[in-house]
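Lab notebook, bench 4. Still working through the backlog of constructs that have no structural model yet. Next entry is a single chain of 246 residues. Request: give me the structure tokens for it.
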Amino acid sequence: MLALIDRMRSEGKPIIALFEPDDSVAQRIIKTLVTAGLSPLLLPDPATHPIAWQNSRFEAIVFSPFRSMSDAAWVTTIVRGIVGDRPILALTPDDCAGQRTAVLINGADDAIHGGGDEREIEMRILALIRRRRYNVFGSLICDELEINLVSRHVARAGRPIAMPLREFDLLAHLAHSRDRAVSRLELLQAVWRIDFDPGTNRIDVHVSRLRQRIDGGQSHAMLRTVKGIGYALVSRMGAQSAMRAC
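Model written out:
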């Protein structure tokens, strides 16, 4: 199990722990998560195999507490205690407010009918991941790229990346606007504190150097040029969404 998790982690895709005994529902959820650029990992019932859930590398938890061998409310409390502050999306067997309320009271961050619309399930998972990433104190996280705004340290997949102050500010601004094209003028205002384009290639030079630092040797290029607009820091989920929108 640990070897599998390490291999999935090395691919840079967020790992989602999944418990869903109903095979048809599980395969539908897995397909949805893979399409969103995530790596689902099927796990056994947390009530009977809690050790399998004790891994800090899970980005989020998706599980069906009402299909557990134990009481749904109790097992939700157990999972919350195991996974700490990582987001939990509970799947309910019915579209029932009472079921959703029971798991929300006992520790789930969100709850949705497991047999409902796949797109809504996907968006709720992505929203929970996004919320947690922006709640990490002092850090911006985009896939395996972590930017600590306090220490001004940058790392990708655990590898430290040294960079000058200006490039750090440029990267931080792009990370704040992840998966969105940022105009050259916006970057000049935010990073260089000037509100006009002087017509020089200063941004291009800094972006080129920054791209070498964060994308060199990586299979997924995060720093993208958006023709006619500017630049964007693109996550795997953002890239997948853009492809499906074409």
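Notes after review: The CA atoms of residues 92 and 98 lie 10 Å apart. The chain is about 45% helix and 20% strand. Flag for follow-up if needed.
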